Amino acid sequence: MLFQLLGNREIVKTAASLLLVALLAACSSTPKSPTASKPTPPKPSGQGGFYLDDGPGADAAKNTPAYLDSIADAVPRAEKFHSGANKPYTVFGRSYAPVVNNDPFRQSGVASWYGRKFHGNMTSIGEIYDMYAMTAAHPTLPLPSYVRVTNPANAKSVVVRVNDRGPFHSERIIDLSYAAAHRLDIARKGSSQVIVERVFPGNAPRTSPPPVAAATIVAPTVINTPPATVVATSPITADGTQLFLQLGAFSSQDNANIFRDRMTRELDWNREPIVAVFKDGLWRVRLGPYSSRIEAEAIQARVKDSHDFSPVISKP
Predict the structure, then answer these.
(1) How many CB atoms lie within 10 A of CB 133?
(2) Which residue ranges make up each domain of the chain?
(3) How many CA atoms lie within 13 A of 26 on its CB side?
(4) Quick one: pLDDT at residue 199?
(5) Nearest to 315 by CA among 293, 282, 283
(6) Residues near 42 by Cβ (< 8 Å), separated by ≥ 6?
(7) pLDDT tens digit sequence for 171-214
(8) pLDDT tens per residue, range 51-97
(9) Distance CA 113, CA 42 (A)
(10) Alpha-carbon distance 300 to 246, whole Å?
(11) Which of 50, 69, 131, 244 has a CB 3.0–4.6 Å from the CB of 119, allowing a cystine?
């Protein structure tokens, strides 16, 4: 009995020792870290253009029409100039005198495009803007008229119908529809150097550049009008009068309203109303009111950052 008991005790001790060794070995081993998975790269946004989020949207492949590459050029035809959209006007302190003739025109500079943000809204001649049509906006060409736009970087060109006003930025000469920018391979880039040539019914096929006087046609005509001068020099006093920021002045109420709507979309961060009011013989588009000059100057600086011009601070 005693031998058996001692034998059993030895067996138990041996088993316990083996178990302890196994436990220590398990504790001393370092568990393997799980393999880190590589993050999925973000998909291309498909957005572009001068205005943020102005393209077809996040899923460009889904939202962009499949026929975009095959959209035909605009076909020049004889059209009567719009009665209201070709009058002199002032935007951001700069006055423009639209051309109202059929003279040759050639211009080189930067083109940009505008799209979803304005899609479905009225152009300067009262038509509905379609970002998938072959159209463009120009500050001084007759509305409507036709131009060939060429991208010298790849020799691609399109013919578009000019039916809107803009761009109102000193570094850009024309705003193209999204479809036209896509055809020229500048939609993703947002802007590009181009050559703009006016075309007429019967001469849409490519021809030699027409002779023009670059000094008188290339740059938009700037005129000094007495009303603009009066507003710009209006005294600002500290008498508590509410202040406004004038963005533009128009002889046509329709054009003023269209520009007001455009600025409302572009300055969507602005909290104060943008209105068109008649004063001194012109329809004036302005922001405000602001209760202090400091507040007005803060908004003035923000508009300058986005539109390359300081609106004029004025009183009612």
Answers:
(1) 17
(2) 60-217, 226-314
(3) 6
(4) 96
(5) 293
(6) none
(7) 899 999 999 999 999 988 889 999 999 999 987 555 333 333 33
(8) 445 555 444 445 566 678 888 999 999 999 998 899 999 998 889 99
(9) 25
(10) 10
(11) 131
Whether the upstream peptide bond of residue 316 has omega within 30° of 0, thus cis, is: no
DSSP letters, 93-162, are: TEEE----S----EEEEEEEEE-TTTTTSB-TTSPBP-TTSSEEE-SSS-SSEEEEEEETTTTEEEEEEE
Cα dist from 47 to 67, 166, 182, 272, whole Å: 18, 21, 12, 29
Query: What is the C-alpha to C-alpha distance for residues 239 and 256, in angstroms, rounded to an integer?
Result: 30
Spell out the alpha helix ranges (H) of the chain: 2-28, 60-63, 178-183, 214-217, 226-232, 253-266, 293-307
**Rounded distance, CA 168 to CA 13, Å?**
94
- Which CATH superfamily includes the segment(s) 226-314? Sporulation related repeat (3.30.70.1070)
Strands 135-137 and 282-290: unpaired
Q: Are strands 135-137 and 174-177 parallel, antiparallel or unpaired?
A: antiparallel
3-class secondary-structure state, position 217: helix
Tokens (6 digits) for 166: 């803009």
pLDDT at position 294 is 86
The residue written with tokens 């989020």 in the block is 53
pLDDT tens per residue across span 128-168: 999 999 999 999 999 999 999 999 999 999 999 999 999 98
What's the DSSP call for residue 68?
A: G
**In this model, does residue 312 exceed pLDDT 70?**
yes
Rounded CA separation 301/303 (Å) = 5
Contact 285, 276 (CB under 8 A): yes
Q: Residue 57 has which token pair?
A: 């949207």
In CATH, 60-217 is 3.40.50.300: no
Cβ–Cβ under 8 Å, residues 159 and 178: no
